[in-house]
Design brief:
By secondary structure, this protein is α/β, with parallel strands linked by helices. It has a single domain, classed as Alpha-Beta Barrel (TIM Barrel). The chain has eleven helices and eight strands. Strands 7-6-5-4-3-2-1-8 form an eight-stranded parallel beta sheet. The radius of gyration is 19 Å and the shape is globular.
Length: about 300
Amino acid sequence: MADDYQVPRVPSVDKIAADERAARFKSRSIKKEAKVEGLKLIISMIDLTTLEGRDTPGKVKMLCRKARRPMNERDLPTVGAVCVYPPMVPVAVEQLAGTDINIAAVATYFPSGQATLDERLEEVEHTVAAGADEIDMVINRGSFLSGDYQRVYEEVKATKQACGDAHLKVILETGELQTYDNVRLASQIAIDAGADFIKTSTGKVSPKATMPVTLVMLETIRDHYLKTGEMVGMKPAGGIRSAKLALRYLAMIKETLGDKWLSPKWFRFGASSLLNDVLMQLETQRTGRYHSERYLSIS
């Protein structure tokens, strides 16, 4: 087993203050050239995702084509990663060969995590061996909510070791953690155990990503950085569908963590439908006319 983990003493979160701070970012307005640059940055930060039971190799191939070239006849960034289930990793590896696009895969029996630790670690090892650059795992919420923080820490640490050179994103499933204090503590435990990124949610449980919860997680990352000098990434996932909302998240990142985190290396959006809205907004900025989604590919 892992070393005896000393549960960290984390600051209590004032829910009213956190909600008010997050709400202030909704009043931010980004216009003209800064908006265009922000929209392009968002594209580079998207983990273009398909996590459905009906996923097929053909659907993943379409997603990879969209990831490589978000819009025909436009010089735009590629997305940060394509995120799929483990069986689809070889398809993504073939389709994204020769690009800088990362291949992310959900593992550890996503989204429930209901399997033995050995089974979860085996899935991680097989997924990395198949070519995944990043693993998105989900913590054991039952253990966390029952106060077994040692087990949560040990499982994240073991998963990080199983990842080898692949990066680990740790999903807290904040919609099940009940309080901001729990979100803060779970964030710190994941960071202590070696998470490269912390992530809000699987997208399968409501509420999904929210700005207040993301702010609590960002402040945990900030305090960890101020204490240790170590940077940790952040990934809100689920429910972020509009370019307008994504730009507000960028403002929150800049004001909470600073410009260093305004990079796909340190910040990602877990999204499937966000990209098309960003593309429509870019066309609106370029032409002055609203661009219909029917001119964009579904995937």
